[in-house]
Amino acid sequence: MKIIAAAAFVAAPWQLAHAQAIVGSIPEEFRGDWCQENTKDNIFKPGGCKLKAGSLSIDRMTLDTGRLSCGFDSGAASEGTLQMRMLCTDPEDKESLMYGAQLKLLPGKKIELILEPMDQK
Q: Distance between CA 51 and CA 86 in Å, rounded?
């Protein structure tokens, strides 16, 4: 099972091809409360949101988008970008699915989050 999961992680379309360092948790620079600037993009600025929609909370081992609660599985970091596998649960669906997540540091102390379900085959 772990070999299949690792192969899916390597083959994931969001993973970059250059050298990466394996990480055991979400790095400090990504942790904290974030608020989505515009619902049309995936850019977040530091600080909490007044409304739950558009909020993002990240700590050492979890990421919560308000719609999904995700636990860190594995990850690699390179040049301000973090690629992760996360086990996520939708409170309405109650089924956990593996997601691929990319967090990228942007100018102005902002981050970009791309979170997509991984192929479960």
A: 24
Query: What string of DSSP letters covers 17-57?
Result: SS--EEESS--GGG-EEEEES-TTS-EEEES--SSSTTEEE
pLDDT, one tens digit per residue, over 11-43 is 444 444 456 688 899 999 999 999 998 878 899
Note the pLDDT of residue 33.
95
Beta carbons within 8 Å of 83's beta carbon, 6+ residues apart: 12, 14, 15, 16, 20, 75, 76, 77, 100, 101, 102
Six-digit token pair at 12?
């994931």
